[in-house]
Design brief:
Shape: extended
Strand order of the largest sheet: 7-6-11-10-9-8
Radius of gyration: 34 Å
Distance between the termini: 86 Å
Largest sheet: 6 strands, antiparallel
CATH architecture of one domain: 2-Layer Sandwich
Number of helices: 15
Strand content: 15-25%
Mean pLDDT: 79
Helix content: 40-55%
Low-confidence stretches: 351-374, 417-425, 585-589, 592-597
Structural class: alpha+beta
CATH class of one domain: Alpha Beta
CATH topology of one domain: Heat Shock Protein 90
Length: 597
């Protein structure tokens, strides 16, 4: 009988020990996976933040120069040069003109080609490796431009060996006959240099998977996707990457993971990989964060939990042994145990408070990332202006650098209003000409210029005619024109003691006339023929590049409208924007308003 009870007691002890070990394993595993999941979530949020900032930097570097080739193609000086058999003196003038525009815009090169691809003028005409005399008809950006579209292409220069993004546009005469192609080369390698200082790795590839921007120099011109020999030869034919062998990136493979976040292994290290497509440029942007940011805290939590379990197990064993061996000292042992439990409870309470505080800090980190995302666009612009200012200072152009610094100051002042209105105003548009709510555009433009108006004593008079609610236009373009006209009018009226600006609308035949009038000094007679020309401005040096009215004029034409300028009889200038009027029934208006809201 004694043996039976002894055996039962041993079985009971084994069951308790098994349950204790099982519960310990479950607790340790829960801690490990909880910490691992939390660390992975933070790493994913960081990769999203870095990816947004990096793509924003690249898009900003391209978008601020995408319009330059189109503007230069409309320049009469360039058209006349291509149309006439120019003498050497004219060639020097066009080279100097391109050189000056290249310095102002902060681009790598600007050059002019005949329809057969021969380069006849270039901003680098003074350099030994000038493009003049070179033929670039084999380049895809040239072929796209000749076909009538805006050429866009990234490649390594065959003459300069510099990486750059190319914009090209066809120059036509008044009859629409091609005269040549103007090309602008933009430097994006500066972004690569800036981001090398960040604690991440990144890759930017073209549509073929070829790396042309990277945080590690040895990764350049390698592929992350297999290339057939046929595609490899096609890339060699256009000399996109010169004679680079375009070998596969060493030891790179993707591990199974849910998109847009993937696991990747590169050269023996594991990374969390975030990917985003820049559709307009045709690029793939990859951000790689060290996966040890997940495994390290998880392993540390596992180690700490295991040590805690071992210590707890040892403590329980010692307490049990002490109780069984020293029954006489039961009360003393229980008191010691209660003291130890109280001490452990206090330690656990302190650990819990630390964990709560850490959770608060993690939430603040997520909020910080969201705020950074919302302010990414103006911060990217500030970064771009700062980079340009540095370049202009190095080139000995402090006036232009001062303009960039003033732009940075203006951007910081406007950041408070970015989250309210500028997000709508600055969104991209591909020119969707449709029935546009005129009153909404007028209200938005007035709201955007309100901070500028508040800094002056100028009074804005709103004199809108009733019943003119819809025009044929693109809403984003219309807001851009109105903001430009109102801003110019405020600048002109500020110079007067009783500065005033009038915004009015009226019906003119089958069109709506939107007029912006000021009581400033008006338009000088000698300036009228050049008012809508690119880079023409009457403002003081450093106050602008003279592109606002030129772009507004072009956008008005693209919307089948017209932008006119004249002096008011009572003084000041009047700018009139004429757009096709839309007769819309009440039911249709309600439908469109509901759809737009």
């Amino acid at each position: 009988m004694f043996r039976f009870f002894t055996k039962q007691r041993q079985l009971s002890k084994q069951a308790i020990l098994g349950l204790f070990i099982l519960s310990a394993v479950l607790v340790i595993a829960s801690v490990y996976y909880s910490v691992s999941f939390s660390a992975q979530a933070r790493l994913q949020e960081s990769s999203k933040n870095y990816l947004t900032r990096l793509t924003g930097s690249l898009e900003s570097a391209l978008s601020r120069h995408s319009y330059l080739a189109v503007l230069l193609a409309q320049e009469p000086f360039i058209q006349n040069y291509l149309q006439n058999q120019a003498n050497p003196a004219e060639t020097v003038k066009i080279n100097q003109y391109l050189e000056r525009i290249n310095e102002i815009a902060g681009t790598l090169d600007i050059y002019l080609m005949r329809p057969n691809g021969d380069t006849i003028a270039a901003s680098n005409w003074r350099k030994e490796q000038s493009f003049i005399g070179k033929n670039f008809a084999f380049r895809p950006y040239f072929q796209q431009a000749v076909q009538g579209s805006l050429g866009r292409y990234y490649a390594v220069g065959t003459t300069s060996n510099e990486r750059g993004y190319y914009f090209a546009f066809l120059v036509n005469d008044v009859r629409g006959q091609p005269l040549g192609v103007v090309t602008v080369k933009v430097n994006v390698a500066d972004i690569e240099s800036f981001w090398k200082g960040e604690p991440i790795n990144f890759l930017v590839t073209d549509s073929e998977g070829i790396i042309f921007l990277a945080s590690q120099q040895q990764w350049l011109f390698q592929t992350i996707k297999p290339l057939t020999e046929l595609r490899r030869q096609a890339i060699r034919d256009v000399k996109r990457y010169l004679a680079e062998p375009l070998k596969p990136l060493d030891d790179f493979r993707l591990l199974p993971q849910t998109k847009p976040y993937q696991r990747a292994r590169l050269q023996g290290k594991d990374y969390l990989l975030a990917e985003r497509t820049m559709k307009e440029a045709g690029w793939e942007v990859y951000v790689l964060l060290d996966w040890q940011e997940v495994t390290r805290p998880a392993a540390m939590a596992l180690t700490l939990a295991s040590i805690l379990w071992l210590l707890t197990s040892l403590l329980v064993y010692l307490l049990w042994k002490n109780q069984s061996q020293r029954q006489r000292y039961k009360q003393a042992a229980l008191a010691a145990l209660e003291s130890k439990v109280d001490e452990r409870t206090r330690e656990l309470r302190l650990a819990q408070e630390s964990l709560v505080q850490a959770t608060k800090m993690a939430a603040l980190g997520q909020l910080s990332a969201a705020i950074n995302h919302e302010l990414n666009n103006p911060l990217g612009a500030i970064r771009a202006y700062a980079d340009n200012a540095s370049q202009f200072l190095e080139r000995g152009h402090p006036e232009i650098a001062k303009t960039n610094l003033q732009e940075i100051s203006a951007l910081t002042e406007r950041m408070a209003t970015i989250t309210r209105q500028l997000k709508i105003f600055s969104r991209k548009s591909s020119g969707n000409i449709s029935d546009c709510p005129l009153q909404l555009a007028l209200d938005s433009a007035s709201l955007i210029v309100r901070p500028k108006l508040a800094q002056t004593s100028v009074i804005l008079h709103d004199q809108r005619a009733e019943g003119l609610d819809w025009v044929k236009a693109d809403l984003v373009w219309l807001e851009q024109i109105l903001v430009n006209l109102l801003s110019n009018a405020i600048d002109a009226a500020t110079e007067q003691a009783n500065g005033q600006v009038w915004l009015s609308t009226q019906r003119v035949a089958d069109r709506v006339s939107i007029q912006v009038r000021d009581n400033g000094a008006g338009i000088q007679e000698q300036d009228k023929p050049h008012l809508f020309e690119p880079f023409f401005t009457t403002k003081a040096l450093g106050k602008g590049l003279g592109l606002g009215l030129s772009i507004s004029y072009r956008l008005a034409k693209d919307m089948q409208g017209e932008l006119l300028a004249e002096n008011a009889p009572e003084g000041g200038a009047i700018f009139s924007l004429l757009l096709p009027c839309v007769e819309t029934s009440l039911e249709t208006k309600d439908d469109q308003t509901t759809a737009g809201g």
